[in-house]
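Appendix B. One record, verbatim.
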Amino acid sequence: MSTEYSALQKLGTWSLVPAPLNKPVLGSKWMFKTKYLPNGKIASYKARLVALGCSQEFGIKFTETFSPVATMVTIRMLLTIALHHNWPVTQLDISNAFYPRFIFSKADPSLLLYAKAEDQVFVLIYVDDILITGNNKSQIQLTLQHLQSAFRLKKLGNVSLFLGIQVTQTTYGYFLNQTHYANELLSHSGFSDCKPSTTPALTKPSKLQDETLFSDPQLFRKLAGSLQYLSITRPDIAFAVNSICQFMHPPRNCDYLALKRLLRYIKGTANFGLPITRGSLCLRRYSDADWAADPIERKSMSGYCTFLGPNLISWSVKKQTTAARSSTEVEYRSLSSAISEVLWIRRLAAELLIPQPQTTVLHCDNTSAIALANNIVLHARTKHIEIDHHFIRDHIKHGNIDIAHISSTDQIADIMTKSLPSSCFTFLRSKLTIRSPNG
C-alpha cells in the first residue's frame, strides 16, 4: 500500500481542487490481490487504489483514462513477429498503473513503436504489464532506462507468465496455455475428479430439457465468466462458452448441464493450448455462419478465425443482431464482419513492419455469398444488404481481400458456429492448432 501511494504521489496522478458545485464526488477504495505462479507459489502481493463506483459516466465523473489495454490479437502478433526474427521478448512489471502520454500505434493505442533506419523496437502495454522486443539491444536498454527513470520498474526476464497466460519457450517457438487456471477452475467448481468428455457441447440437445430455473444463478454466472477468460487460449471452447453465456441472467437447469459438459471437456484437455511457430507472415481468414441457429429468436451464428502464417491470432463467435431471410444473407453478413477485422489487422501488420502487399484470402463455403460478393448487379432480393455489398466489393476491387471457396469439410470456422460430432470436432480442432504441449 505504501509503495502504491508513494508512486501515485511521485507521478502526480491527481491535483487537489475545490469540489465542483452540484456534481457527484467519487470516493476510493483499496483492492488487494495475491498473485501466484503456475507452480502455486506466491509471486507477489498487489495493492491498488481505485475509484469507487461502477456507474461512472464520461464527462461527468471522469474525463480521461490512463491505462492502455492491449488486445489479445496484438499480443499474439507481437510474439509471432518476435519468433520470426529470433528476437527476445522481455517482460516488465510497473509498480504503478499510471503512464505519461506516449504516441502510440494508430491501430492499437497500447502499442508503442520505434523504427529508425534499421532499428526496430516494439513496446506493448497492458495496464502495468509490458512486453518489449526488437532488433536493437542498445535501443531496448535505452527504452528501459527511460521507463526506469519515471517508474519503479521490475524486469522479469524472458516472457513466461503474462496476464495469467503461461508462455513456454519450446524448440519450435512458444506455447500459450492456461493449464494452471483451468485446473483451479475445475477445483473450485468441484469437477477435479469428473469423467472427461470428448467434445465441449452436445451435438443435439435433448428434446426433454429441464426448463426449471437453476437454483444458484450466481454460481452459474461465476463459472461462465471464468470460462470466458479461459477461451483466451482455447478457441475450441469459444462456441460452447458463447452459448452458455447467452443465459447468464435466467439460467435454467439445462443450461447448467451444458456448463457441466464443458467443464468435463476441459478436464480432459486442461493442458491444451495455442502454439506459435515459425513460418510465413501471410494473413488468411476463414468465415462461416449457421443460419437461424437460435431456436428461440431464429437468429444466426457467425464465426471466423484468422491465421498469420501457421499461427492462429484471432477468432470470434457471435450471434447476429437480426434474423436473416436466407443462408446467403447470413454468410454475406458474416463475410462483411470478417473483412472489417481483416482490414484492421492489415493496418496493424503494416505498423509492425510486416505489410501485406498480397491480397488477404477469405475462405467461405457458400457459393451464393461468393457470387454475390463478385457480382456488381444486385438482385431485388438482396437490396436490403446493399451497403455490405458495396463495402465488400470495394475491397475486392482494391485488392485488399479476395474471397475463395472452400469445402464445408475443410471450413475451419465451422467449429465457431455450431456443435459438432466428436470426429469432426477433433479434426477441426487440430486445424486450429489447439493441442497439448507435446503435440
